[in-house]
């Protein structure tokens, strides 16, 4: 392909809204050991339960700035739960420093995460959500540490950390 043709195609593609390429799928749970019942609560009902910033991330699929989360420096033993419905999503032994500026994990709690394809940046990515409330958490990439090679890159505002010395709060409904 000639350079001029390539640049023309690239220029046209940049003007097409990303929504044209976005094809949401049914949320699929990963390694589902038990069925997590999805809440039927409308997304707008979560506005009263989470901060405006967390709502944008969880239910409008925004992303927080890198390096802005207090959870980046959280190193205690505990559980990371969904900031909306309180479903446990990650255990602290699977958290690691990825250098990306977002809390990163090598694996989620089995069956507590759902995924879908994301074409918002035109390239295919795998987006993941809380399997219970559908709240957007982040994206999973295949550049993590061995043995799984996965990096579950999470928005800090989409999570709450509960130390193992504390009791997990009851699930919100």
Automatic annotation (TrEMBL):
EC number, UniProt record: 1.8.4.12
Gene Ontology annotations for the cellular component aspect, listed alphabetically: cytoplasm
Keyword Oxidoreductase: yes
A biological process from GO: protein repair
Class in the EC hierarchy, top level: oxidoreductase
Gene Ontology MF annotations: peptide-methionine (R)-S-oxide reductase activity
Ranges where the MsrB domain occurs: 43-164
PANTHER family, A to Z: METHIONINE SULFOXIDE REDUCTASE, PEPTIDE-METHIONINE (R)-S-OXIDE REDUCTASE
Stated name of the protein: peptide-methionine (R)-S-oxide reductase
């Amino acid at each position: 392909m000639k350079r001029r043709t390539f640049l023309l195609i690239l220029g046209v593609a940049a003007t097409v809204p990303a929504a044209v390429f976005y094809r949401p799928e049914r949320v699929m749970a990963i390694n589902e050991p038990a069925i997590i019942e999805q809440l039927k609560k409308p997304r707008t009902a979560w506005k009263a339960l989470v901060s405006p910033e967390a709502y944008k991330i969880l239910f409008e699929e925004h992303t927080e700035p890198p390096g802005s989360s207090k959870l980046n420096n959280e190193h205690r033993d505990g559980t990371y739960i969904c900031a909306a419905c309180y479903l446990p999503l990650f255990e602290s032994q699977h958290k690691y420093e990825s250098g990306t500026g977002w809390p990163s994990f090598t694996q989620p709690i089995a069956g507590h995460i759902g995924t879908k394809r994301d074409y918002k940046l035109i390239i295919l990515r795998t987006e993941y959500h809380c399997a219970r409330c559908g709240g957007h958490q982040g994206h999973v990439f295949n550049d993590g540490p061995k043995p799984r090679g996965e990096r579950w890159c999470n928005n800090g505002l989409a999570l709450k950390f509960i130390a193992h010395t504390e009791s997990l709060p009851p699930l919100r409904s």
